[in-house]
Amino acid sequence: MFGDMMGMMGKLKEAQQKVEATKKRLDTVTLEETSPEGLVQVNITANREVKEIKIDDSLLQDKEQLEDYLVLTVNKAIEKATRVNETELAAVAKEGMPNIPGMDSLFK
């Protein structure tokens, strides 16, 4: 019984280390989102840190339009980064989890 418990604890610790390593790796994964007309481009990491925003000069004349494009494009970039982040972390967590009856449905 205690051997099984120690084995599970070891697997949980290993899974936690893999999750932390994946989080660090996701800092290096850069995603790009561009507005429909290509006037705003946002580069963001898979950990949802905005790295760069490029704005077409034509938007500098209309503050309200620029704000709208920024909000739209940044939100889409965050959604994309969140999907990548959650998919990667869920895969690592599921891979490292010990086989505990009833827990498998939590990671589907």
UniProtKB/TrEMBL annotation:
Query: Subunit details for this protein?
Result: Homodimer.
Question: Where in or outside the cell?
Answer: Cytoplasm, Nucleoid
Sorted alphabetically, the Gene Ontology cellular component annotations on this record are: bacterial nucleoid; cytosol
Family of the protein in this entry: Belongs to the YbaB/EbfC family.
Q: What is the lineage of its organism?
A: Bacteria, Pseudomonadati, Bacteroidota, Flavobacteriia, Flavobacteriales
Q: Which Pfam family, any one, appears in the UniProt record? A: YbaB_DNA_bd
Predominant location of this chain?
cytoplasm
The UniProt entry, under SUPFAM superfamilies, shows: YbaB-like
Could you tell me the superkingdom of the organism this chain comes from?
A: Bacteria
- GO function terms (MF aspect): DNA binding
Q: Which keywords does this chain's UniProt record carry?
A: Coiled coil, Cytoplasm, DNA-binding
InterPro entries assigned to the protein according to its UniProt record, in alphabetical order: YbaB-like_sf, YbaB/EbfC
**This chain belongs to which protein, by name?**
Nucleoid-associated protein SAMN04488513_10788
